[in-house]
Amino acid sequence: MRKYREFGKVYKNPRRPFEKERLDKELKLVGEYGLRCKREVWKVALTLAKMRKAARTLLTLEQDSERRQLEGGALLRRCLRYGLLDGDHMKLDYVLGLTLQDFLERRLQTLVHKHGLARSIHHARVLIRQRHICVGKQMVDVPSFWVRTDSEKHIDLAPTSSLGSGGPGRVKRMKAKSGKKAAADDEE
What we know:
The protein is mostly helical. Helices cover 52% and strands 4% of the residues.
């Protein structure tokens, strides 16, 4: 018996594929944040659009409506937890003012570079993909991982990483192994 999963798309293509101004903006974001392709920009843009749409619909409701209180509070808490809004700006109006850069600043790749664990934004992506980075005790190998504000201080090199306190890497092990063989050949 097969079980099929129907996942929705997590990104949305732009309506006008060859709009010069948008292409330049996306290319600049891809370079600045070390993204793999423009689809990563589109993913973040869809997330932003969904949040802004939810805030717009909640703002049309009356101030004291139960739905606005519950869903609005949940939306604001999520924005606060991920560091998109700070405590001073806990209103739905500020959710409409969020930008793509606010979301891209909260990615693990960006934060690894900002904390000085990597020499460049591209080096940060490589470190994450090669499993050198952990958040708390959890190994994370997804550069687009959203880091919560309480987890931000726990970003560090993984304990098993050869760059940190882990054992030697593959190249160092191979050199040591070949060094032992050469020493054994010299003795004979």
